[in-house]
Write a structure and sequence with these properties.
heterodimer, A: Cyclophilin, nine-stranded antiparallel β-sheet, 18 strands, B: alpha+beta, Gyrase A, domain 2, Cyclophilin, 2 domains, four-stranded antiparallel β-sheet, four-stranded mixed β-sheet, 13 strands, elongated
Amino acid sequence: MTAIIQRAGFLTSVQDLGRTSFREFGVSLSGALYPFAMRVANLLVGNHESEAGLEITLGGLQLHFQDERIVAWCGGEFDVLIGAAPLPAGHTALVRSGEELKFGRAQIGCRAWLAVSGGVDVPIVLGSRSTDLRANFGGFDGRALRDGDVISLGEWPGSSAFAKATADKPTTAKVISSWTAPHDWVSPAKPNPILRFVRGMDWTRFDAATLQRLPSEPFTVSPDSDRMGVRLTGPELARADNVDLISEAVAPGTVQVPPSGQPILLLGDCQTIGGYPKIAHVITVDLGIAAQLRAGDRVRFSEVSLGDAHRLLLQRERALERFRIGLSLRSP
Amino acid sequence: MEIVPLGDSALIVRVREQFEDAPEETQDQVLQTFRQLRSAAIPGVIELAPAYTSVAVFCDPVDVAKASGTASDIFDWLATRIGAATVPKRRGSRRSAPRTVEIPVCYDPEFAPDLEEVARHAQISTEQVVELHSAAGYRVACIGFVPGFPFMAGLPKKLATPRRSNPRKEIPPGAVGIGGAQTGIYPLRSPGGWNLIGRTPLRLFDPSKNPPALLHAGDRVGFRAIKREEFESLKQ
């Protein structure tokens, strides 16, 4: 079955957990900028966590359903409505045929990830359903969604615990789960956030004052930020040496410093190699905060050890495992 | 060899510090390391990507922790496995010969808006630029910038030309350019600052194919000058 994009909003694209295995050919990761949120949203609607959903930037999406689906979303602080009923982040709801789901403007943060039972069905290109918006392939015709697009939704058995438990409710009642996922999973956006980082391999190429400034002074998000990276303005990050670096791999989370001294925090659409010095890397568990940064936001950095970064990641994964088991025992 | 973290979910295996002093030897070493790591299939490793002097190893720390049974020393465990998998082989050991790919290029003025600038910089004629560019042998150091974009070493020193001070907002697919001491081909419509001296009718990146890129790291490349008619017929 299909759903109609009545309004696409500022930037809405089909994304899954990203396109791996083709980096050696220069293919970017793409995917939901915070894959963990897409995984949680998928689990909430009974999908496999790697199904494709929609990434919504700054809101404005209006989606018309043509059959019954279960939906859930995670992300910034958006007002989301099914018809007239609000759907908070991390809650699961039944949408009936003919109903509309609307994303208002983001109050805090800028991105949300919407999962629909059955997933968004677009062809798998190079192992992924993600849209590569820079190289224009994958996802829906290799591009962002536009008003009037009709997206296909995957087969859905309609037999999840949630659907069964809501089957006898009158069709006029809104059916929204009372339970939710942990708050910081479903709403990673924060005012004045702090991003935790591990040192980059070029850390020692910066002067002593710079190394003090990075973890102590605030940076402001510049308007020319996008899915490739968040451009920051703030105190100048100055090199202690002027060695020409040989281009090598970069990754989402990498904080690179071009000659301007104003850092760029790379996100999922970043290119695969780069030649700017890497002063730091935002840790994986904080990519959710990074993906919510929008123009004018103030952000600070705080250093952690590589061991701590791994410990936090493994902790979150264990919690997700418990959540997954808990979900299978739930009903609304 | 040096192994350094690239954040918490990747690391870089740096095979040599320099590239320019010994490009061939460096590339052989990088590719050998790349192949050794690929066949080692270390648990938790998602993918590998070679660059000029290094190979990047992307991993899922959760899977590494499962495989290693340790949650505290994920980087050390990986570094040890990588070290063991990349013991340098003796000279003369089996090494697959690099592929050789011929790229037809039309150097006609309409495809070569910067040919005169390159000629002026080298203080030779445009004909000589074409001759030098198409007679030299190149090698793909790595693929990046955009999908399928080959960074190639081997440009005759005379042709080295600084990047344009004003990058173009849009460069057509197939455009062949010179940026500093390197030459490359733009696979997709993209912005770029290299000096454009010709265009190939070949498709450098096709996501419907696997592998999606025409050129791979390590490939030897030669350019063959073609006339406009051949460009059009090959474009079909």
